[in-house]
Amino acid sequence: YPTWKRTLARRARESQVKRFCKAQAIQRRLEEIEVTFRELEQQGIKLEKLLRDENESPADQQTQWTNQLLYLVQKKNNLMTEESDLMIAVQELKLEEQQCQLDQKLRSYMNKQATLKTPEDEKAEQEILKQLLAVVNKRNVLIDMQEEKRLSEL
């Protein structure tokens, strides 16, 4: 087993572990966002009830409640933006994993000597190459989406 093959296998495992850790961190953050959404929703419901029920309360008190409600809406919008960014990151991780797997399959076919390749091997190699190009194009679309989103936020 040549050294370069061991090195490639080790790097593939390392990148897989990194993707797994990143996916776990994203999942934890998505769960935190979900909990925060529920808390903000409850606070918003309380403020709305206060605004509707307390018509006789002083104007400055109603203004304060309205400002708090607007702050909650802004916070919720920020969380929704973060959640959509995380969902894009999840898609990107999935595509990265797919690309890595296809890369390894393609390498195994390409490392085979040309004289030993069967027509089925060559056909499979071409199919994997097509799949790999499709995955790369999907990743490119995601990156373009992120860039457009970032520019529109500016």
Automatic annotation (TrEMBL):
Residues 13-154 form the BMERB domain. This is MICA1 monooxygenase. One of its GO terms (molecular function) is monooxygenase activity. Residues 23-50 form a coiled coil. Keywords: Coiled coil, Membrane, Monooxygenase, Oxidoreductase. Pfam families: bMERB_dom. InterPro entries: bMERB_dom, F-actin_Monoox_Mical. PROSITE patterns: BMERB. It comes from Vireo altiloquus (Black-whiskered vireo).
